Amino acid sequence: MKTISFIGRLTKDATANTLESGKSVINFTVAMNFPYKDKEGNKQQKVTYYECAYWKQESKIQPYLTKGMQVSIDAWLYADAYINKEGEAIGVIRATVTGIQLLGNNTPVTETKKKGKDKKETKSVASEKKQATAEDDLPF
Fold this sequence. Notes:
The chain is an alpha+beta fold. About 20% of the residues lie in helices and about 45% in strands. Strand 3 (about 25-35) and strand 4 (about 45-55) form a beta hairpin.
């Protein structure tokens, strides 16, 4: 069996299900972007979606698999197709996940910058307090 590794972002929160047999599965969709240039040299982007199933007994990772989370996936792939309500044939790439690693957070950039700014301000206040204490401790 051949496996692949890919990095992408979750399109929605993962769902956990327990089958009648007692097996647990976590289902989620990962989007992977492919940037390229067209014939005119314009930057384009193609997105491929992978329908993932992670078959782990009582996995504790599901709460962390939230929309926007960047993940690295090890899986084996297979193609599937179905007919939708409009009668169109839809192709799907499915991935049976053998390994998963959380790579980043899904915190919006503005919140991250805000937190970083607050940390800097906290450090500045702490260093000012140290300086004031150092000046007060002078023996003369």
